[in-house]
Amino acid sequence: MSRAAKATFTASCLYAVGTIWFVHRAQDQERASMYQGVVRDKERRAQREQNKRDSPISTK
């Protein structure tokens, strides 16, 4: 193989690996941020239930 072919092949491989790494990293970050939404929802529900228990006004 010529030097140019080796350089092109190496550059293509590095580009592919970099792209795959970037996509996986982006997916991990998105998954983490989506999970934080679940955590906030659980906290919000717990706070709502606590407010219902602490409220002096009773609903019938």
UniProtKB/TrEMBL annotation:
Superkingdom assignment: Eukaryota
Amino acid composition bias (Basic and acidic residues), ranges on this chain: 39-60
The keyword Transcription is assigned to this record: no
Region (Disordered): 34-60
Subcellular location field: Mitochondrion
GO CC term (a single one): mitochondrion
Protein's GO biological process: mitochondrial respiratory chain complex IV assembly
The keyword Acetylation is annotated on this UniProt entry: no
Keywords: Mitochondrion, Transit peptide
Family stated for the protein in its record: Belongs to the PET117 family.
PANTHER family: PROTEIN PET117 HOMOLOG, MITOCHONDRIAL (PTHR28163:SF1)
Name of this chain's protein: Uncharacterized protein
Annotated source species: Coemansia pectinata
Top-level taxonomy: Eukaryota, Fungi, Fungi incertae sedis, Zoopagomycota, Kickxellomycotina
